[in-house]
Structure formats: C-alpha cells, structure tokens
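Section handout 9: paired folding examples.
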Amino acid sequence: MSLAFVSSPSFRPFSTARPPVKFPTSGKLRPPRPPAAAVRASSTRGESDGFTQKSGYLFELSTSDANALVDYNIKRIAAIYRRKPLIVVRRLVQLAVAFGRWFGARFVDEFTEKSDEMFEVRARELRRILQELGPAYVKIAQAVSSRSDLIPPSYLDQLSLLQDRIAPFSTDVALKTIEKELGLPIDLVFSEISPEPIAAASLGQVYQARLRSSGQLVAVKVQRPGVQAAISLDILILRYVAGIIKILGKFNSDLQAVIDEWASSLFREMDYVNEAKNGIKFRELYGDIKDVVVPEMYQEYTTRKVIVMEWIEGQKLVEVKDLYLVEVGVYCSFRQLLECGFYHADPHPGNLLRTDDGKLAYLDFGMMGEFRKELQLGFIEACLHLVNRDYDALSEDFVTLGFLPPTADREAVTNALTGVFKDAIAKGIRNISFGDLSGNLGFTMYKFKFQIPSYFSLVIRSLAVLEGIAISFDPNYKVLGSTYPWIARKVLTDSSPELKSTLISVLYKDGVFRIDRLESLLSESLRAETKKALAKQPVEAAGSKVVVKQLLSFTLTEKVTFSPLLFYRSTSFFVAFICTHIFCFDEFTHIFCNIWQGSFIREILLQEVAKVGFCIPSTCGFVL
C-alpha cells in the first residue's frame, strides 16, 4: 500500500467530538497540488466502505479467536471456522453470487453483442466486487494490476485503483484505533493530522501527521478493522479450492503450498511491528544505493495495528515514465535477490514512487521474502546456462531450484528445454521477456512434472512488477535483459568458492576454454550500469567491446601458429588497450580493473595466456 502521494490536504483538529487542537501558525503543510487531489477525490468520492458493509459479519470473532489469528496457522484457522459453519456458508454464498452475477453479465454482453459497449462498466463492477469481498481478493488484483501487456486497459485502470484508492473506513474509527494502540491521547503524539486519509488500500489507510515531539512530517498507517478474520476465512476457502483444482486439473505443483507461502507473508504484513523492523533492515541494506530512498521508521510509535514512518513526497513511478528509475529498481532488485537475499515481495506500482528530486522511493515493507544462498546460486547458474544454451546443465539447475523432482529423466528434459527455449534465446538475452520463457513451457511442465516452488511466486512477482511498469511506457523493455549484466559482473568478480566453480563450468566445455563465453560475460558486464551512466560515453563503451573481442581473439586462442606478424599484432592490441583504457580512465577501465582485481579471473586469463606463450618457443625452435 502506498504511503505518500503528490499532494497533502490541510490538517484538521483530530475529531469533531474532541476539543480543537491549537496548531502553531508556522509549520503548516503545503497546500495540495490540484491535479493529484482531483484524481484522488474523483476516485473515491461517493463510495462508502463496501468491505465493512458487505463483509462486516466476518469481523464477529471472540477475543480468544482474534488472538489466535495473530500468526498464520491453517489448522488453527480451520478449527475456528469449524465452529462457525453458518459464517462459512454465508461467505461461500456471497462469493458465488458476486462472481456468478458478474460472469453472467459478461455472458449476456457476449450473447447480445454488447461486450465493447459494456467493457468499462464491467471493469468498474469487478473492482467494486473485489473491494467488497476484501483484502485477499484485492491483493490478488494488485498482483496483476501492473501488467499492461496482459490486462485490457479498462480493467487495468480500475484494478490500479485498488493499489491505494479503495474507499476508506471511518476516520473516527481510525483515530480511536491510534489512541488505543499507542495508549495516549492522539493530540499528545501529533500536533497536526490530515482530516481524511491520504491513501486507502486493502489492509489499512494512511494519514499525514506531524510529530509533536520533533515537528517531523510523518505518515501514519492504521490497520483496517476485521482484516485478519476476513483474510483467514478466504485463505481457508482458496486453499480448499486449490486442492480441488490440483486433483481435477492434475497439477504437478502444490498449489496449496503456494497459497500457504502467500498467506504467511500476508499475515506478516498485518503485523506493523514486523513491517517497521523490515523497513529498518531494508534501509540498512539498500539505502546507500544511488538514487534509492527508504523512509525512516519510528518504532516508538509503532504497534501491531499502527505504524509511523517518514513522509515522502512523490508520484507513482508508473505515472512519470522514468526508465532510468526502472533501471535503478532492477539493480536494487538484483542486490535484494542475488546478494543480500532479503527482498521486497510486494513492489506493486503504488509502492514505488519517484520523489520530487528524481529518486526511487520504496514503501510498504510488510511483505518481504528471504532468498537462501543455495537458491541464489541456483538462480545465477540457471541464467548463465540458459544464455549459453547449456540445456544439460539447465535441467540440473531446475532440480536444484525445486522445479523438477530428482527422479526426472535428464536427457528427455534437456531435449524438451532445447525445443522450448531455442527460439527465445535466439533473440539474445537483451530481448527475452517473461512471456518468451513461459510461452511454450506449459506442456513441458506438465509432461515432466514440473513444480512451482512456493518461494518462487513471490520472487517472480518482484521482477514481473518492474517489467510491467516499464512496459507501460516502453513496450520493448525486458527486465531479464537488464538484470543479466549484473549477474555477469557478479560471476566475474565474486570470490566465493561456489561462483568460482560456476565460472569454471561456464568457461570450459570438455576441457576446452570457451573464448566466446568469456567475451560474452565481459561484454554484458559492460552494460551493468544504469542508463544514465551509460549515456555519458556510448562511443567509448562500444569501442571497449571491440577491444575485448580483438584482445581475446588474438591472445587466448589455443589453435595458434606463431608468426612474427601475429606476435606483433597481439602485442599491439595490448599496447593499444593500455594506452586507450588505462591512461584515459574511461568507463571500461573502471569495470575491467574491478574484474581484473578478482584474483580468480586473473588466474584463468594468465593461465590461458601462458598456454599461448608455451606455444611460441616450441614453434620457433627456442629453448627456455
């Protein structure tokens, strides 16, 4: 859920029922920017809290039952609702009627040939239905709301409203919740607060306030009443439906485990104390990345249902069409997934902002994921083997990552993967999209009992959202093509034994040194810069790639017949390389020096150069 937008309403006293607070004459907030204010007002004006009205009966839990739903435990949830069969039946009827009526209307539109005419109407109706059904269904909609390449524009516009423009619940209820959670009168904590929420999403809504103690402008997020009870029952239902689908559809993947993984992260997201800790950790790990902003958390004002953090002004990244910040996000995702292993698992467009000074701000740290070391290594190896068309090794990677059972027929899998990926890889890594890789994979996954590991749904979503944002204003953007250069550089510079072994397996095939693969890794590593940096010296970068190719070709080919001319030309390239790149200190020099400082790649290069050196005296009849 997004915590900051481009505008700020004026502050108000805390409640009409309580004496007005005397605000200081200085320190008033800036007036709202009309365009954003108008958009927000138009999106929610006249709408009531449909979730509370239509699904409020789900909130009726005893204190002991409510306390039992603090953490995700499917057995505990099942035990609670086994004692409440009428609520379960009522929810099932509500779901059946809501979706049945909508699909029925779509069928009538098709039958009467009014589909185009009623398209936007049905999109609005679907958004309203999802909003009334509550957080679980809103979260599912948020997951697809960034994919302009998959969702029709009318539906995309409506589903995008579910990111942060859901009709809010009562402000009086929100303010009472703040006081109850903090154990203090609200006017002792804040000197000012916005009269209405700035943003409202599936789990809570956000107010802008000013801390009385420091005068700091902050965002105050308050949890929506009843969300844990509603989500618990809906997960129980979805899990039951997933079990039926798995049986009837003969799915290899454990759909219930995927739902369990998602549900666990969703329950963690509802604990704002946990979110504050995540935000602090995220800021420590990635706050130093150039042009990345992570808000400060105020733990002393944070409880399970209320969180206070630094206010950040900005616009949604998807609205400003800043491809450079998408590249920044790609690099940050690379760091999250393949270096630190702690990643933002809910980066929908409402949680990514372009700040007023042109930086990328991350918000909402409730749903985070852990990517273990062995999975990081497996993912890197799979990317390298895919790019280099090493499908034998790729089938092994799929076992390591949990996509294939260890008993799978490797040879048959290799042949199948070759048929699936060869056309996509022929385009080059820079032109591969998620759609290219998944387009023909369905039959192969079914035939060889591919599984979708529970962790993978969150990982792929974190990357797919970035690609979806970029595609909305650059249809040719490919997030995999932007991520691979960072993988190439990591493989060339990392000193870990695991990646050394990976590099050896990539560069040597049947004991033969593959110059073309080293050239590819070096060339791709040159692209491991954001577009803003690359735009500075495009000519020099291109020239650097030529030098890499020529240098490697003349010095590291084993099948060589010595001649003075060849020796002269090879030496000339070394001299040209030194003069052009060492003394000019251009972008390539910086990158090459970083790679050269990695002792392992230096050892490989010197070893291969030595092989050429030993050929020279024997060819000329010299004795050393």
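Moving on to protein 2 of 2.
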Amino acid sequence: MAGFEYDFPSITSSGPLNLSNFPVDALPGEHDGDSSLPGDTFGAVLQYLNQMLMGEDLEQRPCMYQELSALQAAEKSFYDALTGVEIIKVADEKEKERDKFTNGSAKKRNHYRQDDEHVEAGRATKQFASYAEEPTEIFDEALLCSSSNAGSWDLSYCEAKPGRRNNQQIGLTQEPKRGRPRASERKLNIREVVDMRSLLTQCAQSISDFDNRTANQLLNQIRQHSSPHGDGNERLAHYFADALEARVSGMGTTMYTAFSTRVSAADTLKAYQAYILASPFRKMSNILTGKTIQKLTTEASQIHIIDFGILYGFHWPCFIQALSKRPRGPPKLRITGIDLPQPGLRPAERVEETGRRLAHYCKKFNVPFEYHAIARKWETISLEELKIDRCETVIATCLYRLRNVPDETSVTSSARDTVLHLIKKINPDLFVHGILNGTYNAPFFVMRFREALHHFSSLFDMFDKTLPRHDQDRLVFEKEVLGRQSMNVIACEGTARIERPETYKQWQARNERAGFRQIPLNKDIVKEVRAKVKLQYHKDFLVDEDGKWILQGWKGRVIYALSYWKPAHELGTRCLLGKDT
C-alpha cells in the first residue's frame, strides 16, 4: 500500500484562476436551465477530464481500464491453457444439450430488462518516474468551478467541436424531410429490410452447432449489410460480426486483449466525454452518490472513503468541492483508492497518480486530505490494510466494477462474495453500490448471445438518437468500448470472459446473503434526478425506482442501477440519509 497526506495547516489557497481563455460549448449552469432545481458540481468532473487530456502524456499511454481488464483476461486465459481445458467446446456442448429442451420457447421479458454497459477510463504500460514532472498549473484550472456561482457547472469542459450538439440539445431529433426520397435513400430503405438480429442469431446458433461453413456464409451476408458508420443496427451487426468471427477462429482472447494497445488513453477519454454528454447515466450517478454521502456526513469531522475501482477518480471532485463550502469548514477527508495492479515494475503507479490529482484538488480548496493506494486483486485485500479508524465516518463505494470480479460461474470460490464480505467487515456507515444491469452471464453461448444482442442494441440505438453519426468520439466509443465488451461476451469463455454482469435483483439477493440490509433512497435527491433527466435529455431515457433501487435505462430497458446498504446488524442505530422515507 502506498499513501501520502496533506495536513490542513500547511495548505494555502492560491485563489480562483481565470478560465476565460477556454472556448466552450454552452452547457447548463447550476440549475440546469430551471431555477427550481437544486445545483450540482458535475462541471468539475468534465473539466477534470478535459485537463487530464491537456496536461498529461496520455497520447503515448494506453487506457487504464482497458489495460487492466486485458491483463486480467490474458492472465486467466493462460491458466486455462495450462490446465488443458477446451472451454469453448465444453460450453457449446452444454448449449446443444440445453437447446433440446429450450429451443423455440419464448420467454416473457420484464419491463426492467437486465443488461450492461459502463465506461470507465484507462490504463498504462509505460512507466513514469515522477508525478512532479506533470504541469500542476493545468490541474489548478481543471478542478475549479465558477468562483462567483459556487456549485455550478456553467464552465464547459471542452472546445466546441463541429457537429457536436451541446448538452441541452442532446437527443433532439431532426424534423423528418418532406417530399419524395432520393434514389440513394430508397436504396438505404431496401437494406433495412434485412433482419440483422435474425441473421446474427442464426450465425451464433451455427457456431454453437460447430457448423462453421454455415456460420461463415451467414457472416459474409451480415458483412454486406453492416458498417461501423451506418445506423445503430448496422453498427451493432458490424461489431457482433467481429466477435462471432473471432469465436469461429478461436482468437477471442487474443482479439480482446489487443484492444488495450491500439488506442491511446487520450482517445479513449475523449470518447468517454462524448458518452457522458450523450447520456445522463454518469452525471446522475454522481449526483446520487455525492449528495447522499453529503447528507450522511453533515456533522462528521473525519470522513474515510474506501473506493473499490477508483480508476481516475472522476466521481470525487464534485464531492470535494462541496465539502469545501461547509459553513464550519471542511472535515478531514481520507480516501483509500483500490484497483487492480498494472503490469510492470510499479503495479500501483496509476492508482497513486489518481491520489496525487485528488490531493492537489483538495489542497486548492483547503480540504485536509490523506490518500492510500492499494493495487491488488480485490479478493486478496485484508481488513488490516485498510487502516480503519472508528472515529471516522466510513463510506465504502463500488460503482459498476464488481461485474469484472469473478463469480461462482467462473471459479470455484466466488471472489465476488469475498469482496462483499470484506466490505461487511469494514462495517461502513454506508455502502454505495452501483451495478451494470445485465442478463448475459449465462454459461450457454446462444442464450448469452441473445441477451447481449438485446442489451447492446439499446446502447447503439441510444447513440443513434443522441449523437451525430459522423461524430468521431462516438465512433471511438462504439469501437473501443462497446465493441470490446461485446468481443469479451461473445468470443471469450472460461475465466477469460470477465464481463459477467448480474441483474439488480440478483445483486440484491447476493448482498443480503453477505449480511447487508438496504437503506431507503432519499426522495428529494431522486426527485432532483428525475427532473434533470426529463428537462435535459432525450425523452426515451428512463429513471425509475424498484424497491430501494434507482434505475436508469433506455426505452424501458434498465442499464444501470444504484442502491445504498449497511451491515444488517448495525441497521437502526441511527438515521443515515435524513429524509429517507
């Protein structure tokens, strides 16, 4: 474990910086265009991200998240090779047996369909000796919100791009054209008659039946009607065809791990910007998490956040800025940042870099700060390494990353349950759990493929309605994030398949078995999130509640879910969230 600390008395404020030299798109201000809505500080996240792109050598470094997951898949695939297990054949033979009983049966789908997607930022192979070489002035400007309007995000994070809609225009479709269609448009309509989902499913079934000749014929047909530059269905078909082809050739793990080296962290993070502007998922998750923790820690003098899957730490600038504005002064903040080790001689380097950025941000806002980095497989971490102080208010968070921790379907002992038991031993005052809602974790290939098809089609359709087709960042995100995830789901098997989501109802059962009890949602915060999504985003975005979960999705399909938990034996000792009924 690595750590460092800034003591409050030694911090001096250099004052607000002039950000007028940043040409920006018009983004909503503190009240998102409606003075009746509460303010938020999400603009700090956008500028944090933008200044990382401007101030660090990310063009020469791979994406942190992609490198971590590629290493995880390659490591496990090597283990499978050593044990001589022919995983794909075993899975396909089981699928053929199951199809005798399930083939042709139609399954009813719940309004809240279970699915996947998440984007998180990057990773690196090159080793850098000193963080001090990075220009700290850039982070000064990156992490400041408007000094005249505390808590606002009226300062945008990036320069205007040709073709990029601003945030208030996201999801607004163009008026349909009048008059007779041109010949090229009529030709496009003819192509749309092709049932791509049916062709893809037939191809998957042929692969499952080891009928590679038919599978290749179907792949050729799919290629004729798919394109990474077409509409949502054509793009989906293109990337699913890539994954099916990799499965046929037995190159799934190789193709998946290759993603981590072909695109830089800078390009991936630029694409992530497009994603967080096109959808409300990350912003609303940030608001829900930050404001809930703020309500819990109103009277706290010391706060300890244990973040499983911290990556670049995008979700903490807003919270830090809010702490700095407390009337009686900010409490001491301690963050333990946990993530997987990177390859090379300095496995914790990238996790430590995240801490240094956050430390600089805390110093700017006079928030006493201490940080510890842990770069280990999560299931191997001990309670003692976390250095819990019972005088602190302890918050554990894990946002959308537990799906990559092995469960009982891939290993004998569930690492997923081990991590939950560790969190329970921490005995946090609050456990914030965000999950990617998905049903494509079945061991049977065709069943998994069909569920993945439903899930990813929603995501491609979402981008089709919210971003221009020629947007370069959209193309990168679809290729390097959605294409990469679908490659792992479709072409990889055994322990190399690390995309293993569960539904929020499955997570509820798992958390309860681990000894947690759910905490009610704060109605005021939920109301704020609903209002902002309705005001600012496409009408097909979903915000709903089911039990004590808040759900986000697209056209009735749930993609993300978030809830709050506490060890069951501690429940009832005090009110956690204020107005929680």
